[in-house]
Amino acid sequence: MTFARASLALSCLAFACSDSATDPPADPDAGGGGNDAAQVGDAGPEDAPSSRDAGPDATAVGALYTFTGSGDGKIRVYAVDEGTGAWTAKGSIGAGASPSFLAMDVAKSRLYAVDESGGNVLAFAFDAKAGTLAALGSPVSSQGAGPTHLSLDPTGKWVLVANYTAGSTAVLPVQADGSLGAATDVKSPGQKAHLAITNPSGGFAFVPCLGSNIVAQFTLDGVQGKLVANTPPSVSPPAGAGPRHLAFLTGEKFAFGINELQSSVTGYSFDKATGRLAVLQTVSSLPAGFGNANTGAEIAVHPGGGFVYASNRGHDSIATFSVNGATGALTLVGHEPTGGQTPRSFAVDPGGKYLFAANQNSGTVTGFRLDAGSGKPVALGGAPNTVPSPTFVGAWRLP
To answer: How many CB atoms are located within 10 Å of the residue 7 CB?
Structure first.
């Protein structure tokens, strides 16, 4: 079977060894693979295909990035069969001590990772034909302790980094070869900064600060790489919510945030002219009557715009909500068990066909097919993919 470039899809995962309710950085003395390996090597024993892995005729590719508590510190690459959702291991590369979050550029030729323990950001070139990664330049300081998230602006010129422990965010320039330069700006918007993203069309930036219970709002100078506080400089979900991550709905009319401490989802309206968010609604991510410990972790929107997904660590589920396209109101559809413990991360593939959930404390990543009508995740069945302590999974399609 030949590989049609237009049908290639990338699923990417990265992992850290431990995660409390507030994701403290991993112990830098715990060991881990450094960044001395410049090229992805052959798949090792832990990279071996699972019972659901696709064979050599797989029609889609994906990338799986993991960090293990045993000091593995690797990013892993997998191919994904679009017909079945099964994975085939392609290889791995050392990525510091704790590559706990990854981001890919628009061209899908460059990958960027935070090293949460080392306080650095790393860049890699991706060879789509071989399914391999190669280091680009040297690690660059995130300008703060505990970098836990990063993203690229839509121009691909700037990488935004959230430093959780430092409570800061930095802007790093992307060089012509894809490597990173020293930070052009650093801001300290609030305690426990957990994410830094722009709106999909660019021009504005947002940083949920869990400890300060705010989502900081900035304009992004795309020429100088500078952040300027918007007016107002922040918006707040309900008291004590603990905003963690944020995702924009297709069209940018609405955004949705997962609140870690209260296990809830807050919907925001978004003014594309001013870059301001405004709170619309907050709903629980848990089923009624659930009384055990839980923290919210990840949020994602369906590329079709009709559904929002949120993960629960404790209830160990994915909550599915339908979205009213006119008002942004969320309606609970249901909860699907992730088949493991502590789903810190999950991803919806760009085609809206699959969802992959990373169960950090079970060492597995479980695949689901998304029902086109209800939006519900339906488990693919079979053995889950075995991944050492996964903290991140992302899904990207090649252009």
So the answer is: 14
